[in-house]
Write a structure and sequence with these properties.
single chain, 213 residues, mainly beta, Jelly Rolls, 2 domains, four-stranded antiparallel beta sheet
Length: 213
Amino acid sequence: MPDYADWTESIELLGSEVMVPFDVQGAYIQVPMDLQGALIQMPVDIQGQYVDLKVDIVAQTVGSIAIDISAQSIGNLTIDVSAQTVAVKTQGEWSPQQGLQKYLTNVVSGLTSGAEAYTSYTVPTGKTLYVTHMGFTIWGVASAERDSNQIGWSRIQNATTSIDLAYIGGNGGHGIAFPTPLKIPADEVCRIYIGNGSDHDVYGWYSWGGYEI
């Protein structure tokens, strides 16, 4: 039989504990096989081919599927997983389930006109902090001032790099959620400020929240 020829061969294997190693080199070779029995091991070595590999997993209870494909020239790889219970969650959904939420809040009293106060958080080694929202509220210390405008602001800063990441302001307070979280790397300091833009002393509450992974 010549090498590298168009060749079709049917092999029928019956029984058990059968090992059939194949070393197939060349092109346009079809080897249909009918395997019956148990404990059959078939190592197949395919070299020098452009391979279309289709994996079809149907109606199985799959704990873990590990696929390692390396050093191959693969034309198409099709994986069809059906009849499974599959869950794809956003980071915002997954983080609370894993207990990864982080919150920082603080209160300041007697903040004078034009003054700022802040509180800081250092991201642990090996972690990254993602801030998803921030907010603040202020009102006058003196009851007579509480019907006046309560102008204030808040900002989040990476204090390690001295870069402000976000600003908000408002009358009586404000809050914001970030579609793309603010990122603070490991060992760097996240600092949140509150400022008083009113003409009287105020109380202030300010906070941020997010997750840390």
